[in-house]
Amino acid sequence: MNFNITKGFLEILHQKIEQKDLSWIKENVLSLHYADIAEIMDYLDNQEAKYIYSLVDEETQGDILMEVEESVRDRFLSSLSNKEIAEQLENLESDDAADLLGDLPDEQQEDVISKMDDEEAAEVVDLLKYDEDSAGGVMQKELIKANMNWPVNRAVVQLRKQAENVEKVYHIYVVDDDDRLVGVLSLKRLLFAGAKTKISDLYQSTNIISVKSNESLETVAKTMEKYDLVTIPVLDLQNKLIGRITFDDVVEFIKEEADKDYQMASGLSEKVDSYSSVWRISKARLPWLLIGMIGGVFGAQVISGFEGGITRVPELAFYIPLIMAMGGNIGVQSSAIVVQSLAKDSKPLGSILTKIARESLVAVINGLFLSFLIYAIAVAFGNAKLGLVVSFSLFAVIMVAAIFGTLIPLLLNKYKIDPALATGPFITTLNDVVGLFIYFTIGMMMYNL
Amino acid sequence: MNFNITKGFLEILHQKIEQKDLSWIKENVLSLHYADIAEIMDYLDNQEAKYIYSLVDEETQGDILMEVEESVRDRFLSSLSNKEIAEQLENLESDDAADLLGDLPDEQQEDVISKMDDEEAAEVVDLLKYDEDSAGGVMQKELIKANMNWPVNRAVVQLRKQAENVEKVYHIYVVDDDDRLVGVLSLKRLLFAGAKTKISDLYQSTNIISVKSNESLETVAKTMEKYDLVTIPVLDLQNKLIGRITFDDVVEFIKEEADKDYQMASGLSEKVDSYSSVWRISKARLPWLLIGMIGGVFGAQVISGFEGGITRVPELAFYIPLIMAMGGNIGVQSSAIVVQSLAKDSKPLGSILTKIARESLVAVINGLFLSFLIYAIAVAFGNAKLGLVVSFSLFAVIMVAAIFGTLIPLLLNKYKIDPALATGPFITTLNDVVGLFIYFTIGMMMYNL
Taking CB atoms and an 8 Å cutoff, what residues of chain A touch B370? Predict the structure, then answer.
């Protein structure tokens, strides 16, 4: 029932496309769900993909176009004339059309718009006004609305007309004569109501959750998640209903945000996966590696400053890895906790100072435990003095790393910079260098060097 | 319109609850959306929360119970008798009731079930049979279904009855006389159809996406995402319709999975945020720190094995931080790329060997670039020989770290272990130790020590 792509299937498909075996293609490809057809197209070359695309009906073409991988879509669109692009855009929902159009160069945009149907062009042009990361930037114009003064039978007739252009109907928005949102009506209630009942007797008017067009996507996602909404109405600054956002856009946003944080924490500067080109993967990895390298060079400078000490007490070098590993780990852990909390709630109750105090307490608990442990280990290896140096330094490094790790993402967030940056290379590198300095300073003091 | 909790609001609320000021509470709390009331309850003590809870109607009680923080819910439930818990469970949807019940100790479970209404108890008991991480474990029994042979007017009457128990209706599932799923009907089509039309003329029967009850939640999430579904029907092994899963459960699952990977990559062993107790945060951080520490001790052993070399060429110690930082970074990057790809597609086309080959190519590109760079830097600092040692070792460490970083998560995945484990402490620690060994071995050779 659910389709799964296999190597064998693709081999046959390549042949059948070459043979233009329409009946096989109809039965085995065109009968599939559009998401499956899109997935198949990801594995075809442009010529083959265009052939399959030409065989499906217009509406499905639009669905497929939005489902294929971005690189496949770009390749596909760049092989079309502006007139053809305009036709394709007309098959899309307004938000998707605006997204695709927004990615084109400015002159091409204008030309494509001029070739589109006037009404649809107007909708798309209107959507292009909004910031991409705002509610207006992801909303779609297609929605179903009913006037509060209509009776059910009139509403059904009106809504039937509207529904032709709206693929997925989940709710009916109820507006007053000035197009201001006054409530929400579920299809369920409309379906089970008598013909003469007035809409105003059916709709829910309290606790209507909506967003303003200029609110950030982050706010939209948090609101829809909190209230478990499938769609959310978007209002302009006069509270007029101008669009709706559906849950799939928000799921995508949530995933992208999670991916971004994950990339940052694992040292990648852009979204890549095993299928990305070798060149792109190398490029995505280089920034963090360069910063790590600069940190390593600074580390070398710090250690060379203590060269005299190492010459006389070479075992001081033994615990460089331990001090570095612990400083880096603690820093990343502290930042990650802050980043996860900010992702849940970007304006948390409670001050920065309280957070630092709590984090310091955690650092004291972990620091005491680990410092005693490493002292015991060093004694077991027969070097109590070195153990004392490592133990004291470790405690100091843990405290410093925890405080940096908490403070930096909070400060970044305060100045509207993505706090996840802190989990990246900077904190680890900073903690490495500071940690080495602390370690050797304590070492020199305790060995009277 | 949308509610935001503030310190000021909470202060007044504490007072009003103490004064039992019903009219203020009604106007300012009870009129809010249940998700907002739940959020407020997170900030109240158990006594206060119970008071507010007792004032809302039964259905809203159920909604609130599922929205409050888990710790608040546990505290709240543990202050209720089994009879009271049974009453609360009856207000919930079947999947939520089963979740809460599943968290109780076995004897208490039985007692609570015996005190529930028979019909609802049967549903919940049935759901408890399924594995928590399977489709059956998250589905709810509440759904709307129509027999394919009904005419629209009969269907509307039947569906109205069913709809009383189903909070959110998005689709109507169409079944045959044996309760086998044959298609899906959108409320939109039903709403706009004539009274005498037969359901079998209305429903969509091709490309019906469903899952089997024993499929994993991961499969469910990927399927719903791929096909942009708000709900998905769940079938038993005979293709009978037994439940549905709604998008909010899947959004939660997606977020939890992303959180887990993120925690792993940032060295936390369980989900914590700034609001977790100091003790819990310390505990979540300790496992990675301990592994890092063991790695550090091994590192110390490796370096002490080369003590003679360091005594004669102390500058060898300078680049320990650089070698370690690079090995760790490369390893985490490689693993993270594999983990992200597996998250998208757990059974990727293409063999492990191909992936290792590609990753090695990336490592060669980055390795060559960084090795030349560090050689140039070392020469600039006036130490060409040391530069050569660092440059050669760095290249070797990058290659080894990249291969380990790719191979380990792929192997973990093959043996059904969460590949994200690889981004955690193990790879970094392994690479640190191996990297140091490579560095000092090359150093000893090149300095003829």
Answer: 289-290, 293
CB contact under 8 A, A210 and B2: yes
Among A residues 288-317, those touching chain B with beta carbons less than 8 Å apart? 288-290, 292-293, 295-297, 299-300, 303-304, 307, 310-311, 314-315, 317
Residues 6 or more apart in contact with residue B23 via CB below 8 angstroms: none
- Is B159's pLDDT higher than 80? yes
Q: What is the CATH number of the domain that holds B214?
A: 3.10.580.10
Q: Does A268 contact B2 at a Cβ distance shorter than 8 Å?
A: no
Task: Provide the pLDDT confidence category of residue A1 given band limits of 50, 70 and 90.
Answer: low
Task: Classify residue A268: in a domain, yes or no.
Answer: no
B393 touching chain A per CB within 8 A: no
pLDDT, one tens digit per residue, over B15-44 is 999 999 999 999 999 999 999 999 999 899
B164 contacts chain A (CB < 8 A):
no
- Determine, yes or no, domain membership for A91: yes
CA distance A336 to chain B (A): 6
What burial class does residue A106 get, using C-beta atoms within 10 Å of its C-beta: 0-12 exposed, 13-18 middle, 19+ buried?
A: exposed
Q: Does B259 touch chain A (CB under 8 A)?
A: yes
Residue from the list A156, A274, A344 with its beta carbon closest to the beta carbon of B191? A156
DSSP three-state, residue A116: coil
Which of B109, B133, B157 is the last residue before a domain boundary?
B133
Q: How far apart are CA B294 and CA B300, in angstroms?
A: 10
| Residues from chain A contacting residue B366 (CB–CB below 8 Å) | 282, 285-286, 289
Domain shared by A119 and A150, yes or no: no
Residue A63: which of A135, A186, A217, A168 has the closest Cα?
A: A168
Q: How far from A384 is each of A377, A390, A442, B370, CA to CA, in Å?
A: 9, 10, 15, 39
Strands A181-186 and A211-212, sheet pairing: unpaired
The proportion of chain A whose per-residue pLDDT surpasses 90, expressed as a percent, equals 44
Q: In the prediction, which pLDDT does B18 show?
A: 93
Q: Domain boundary at A76, A99, A130, which?
A: A130
Task: Kindly give the interhelix angle for B320-344 and A247-265, rounded to the nearest 10 degrees.
Answer: 160
Q: How many residues does chain B have?
A: 449
Beta bridge partners of B145: B173
B439, pLDDT greater than 90: yes
Residue of B nearest to A268 (CA): B333
What ipTM was estimated for this complex? Answer: 0.81
Q: How far apart are CA A134 and CA A242, in angstroms?
A: 14
Secondary structure (DSSP) of A362-424:
HHHHHHHHHHHHHHHHHHHTT-HHHHHHHHHHHHHHHHHHHHHHHHHHHHHHHTTS-GGGGGT
Q: Check whether A346 has a pLDDT greater than 60.
A: no
Interface test mutation site (partner B, options A186, A271, A306, A324, max chain B beta carbons within 10 A): A324
Residue type, A406: T
Supply the pLDDT for residue A52.
93
**Nearest by CB to A230, which of B247, B290, B362?**
B247
Q: CB distance from B268 to chain A under 8 Å?
A: yes
Number of domains within chain B: 3
For residue A408, what are the domain limits?
Answer: 278-446
Interchain pair B191, A192: CB under 8 A: no
Mean pLDDT for chain A?
88
The letter for the amino acid at B191 is: L
pTM: 0.82
* Chain B residues touching A303 at Cβ < 8 A: 317-318, 320-321
Q: With an 8 Å Cβ cutoff, is B192 touching chain A?
A: yes
Enumerate the β-bridge partners of residue B140: B244
Q: Is residue B169 part of a domain?
A: yes
State the amino acid at position B340 in one-letter form: Q
CATH of the domain at A383: 1.10.357.20
